[in-house]
């Protein structure tokens, strides 16, 4: 789907969770699995782990117009925020309903893949303002068929690196 030639290697932590050797039962364990897996996917990435907020991880902005990536593990799900206005939810309940053996691990894996793909420049982030007020945002994979037909005509376009032009 993403044009990757090989399946990514799982971190030891997440692989153990998927095999059922450990259970992701709380935000702290989800955070540990996420950070471990993301760092194995994107070595050298400047991931900041907030030790005071047990469920927050951040990746500093590469471009100020895009903003930082903030990952939150509260409420039994993973929420990935890009900048001040956009966020996406990764809910283990979706994976549970699809029959995954370990829906929490599948949820963390999906969030890691999304963040990895955004950082790699595979995802377009679009944001709209009307009369200076936020009016909506979203993300799409750049390889989406008819990409620009799915993006509001007046949206500002970005990848992780900064402004993007079709």
Could you walk me through the main structural features you see in this protein, from its secondary elements to its overall organization?
This protein has 166 residues and is α+β, with helices and mostly antiparallel strands. The protein is built from 4 helices and 9 strands. It has helices spanning 12-18, 27-41, 92-97, 103-119, and strands at 48-49, 56-59, 69-72, 78-82, 86-90, 123-130, 133-141, 156-159, 162-163. A 5-stranded antiparallel beta sheet has the order 1-2-3-4-5. Strands 7-6-8-9 form a 4-stranded antiparallel beta sheet, with helices on one face. Strand 8 and strand 9 (162-163) form a beta hairpin. Helix 1 (12-18) packs across helix 2 and helix 2 crosses helix 4 (103-119). The longest helix has 17 residues, at 103-119. The radius of gyration is 16 Å and the shape is globular.
Low-confidence stretches: 1-9, 17-24
Q: What proportion of the residues is helical, as a percent range?
A: 25-40%
Radius of gyration: 16 Å
Largest sheet: 5 strands, antiparallel
Indicate the proportion of strand residues.
25-35%
How many separate helices? 4
Q: Strand order within the widest sheet?
A: 1-2-3-4-5
Q: Give the overall form.
A: globular
Structural class: alpha+beta
Mean pLDDT: 83
Distance between the termini: 21 Å
Could you give the order of the helices and strands?
HHEEEEEHHEEEE
Number of strand segments? 9
């Amino acid at each position: 789907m993403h044009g990757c030639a090989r399946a990514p290697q799982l971190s030891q932590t997440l692989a153990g969770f998927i095999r059922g050797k450990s259970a992701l039962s709380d935000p702290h364990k989800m955070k540990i699995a996420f950070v471990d897996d993301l760092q194995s996917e994107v070595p050298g990435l400047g991931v900041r782990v907030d030790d005071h907020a047990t469920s927050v991880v951040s990746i500093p902005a590469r471009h100020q117009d895009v903003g930082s990536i903030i990952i939150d593990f509260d409420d039994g799900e993973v929420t990935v925020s890009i900048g001040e206005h956009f966020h996406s939810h990764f809910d283990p309940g979706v994976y549970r309903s699809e029959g995954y053996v370990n829906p929490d691990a599948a949820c963390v894996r999906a969030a890691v893949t999304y963040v990895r793909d955004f950082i790699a420049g595979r995802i377009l982030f679009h944001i709209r303002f009307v009369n200076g007020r936020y009016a909506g945002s979203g993300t799409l994979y750049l390889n989406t068929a008819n990409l620009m037909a799915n993006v509001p005509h007046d949206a500002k376009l970005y990848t992780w690196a900064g402004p993007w032009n079709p």
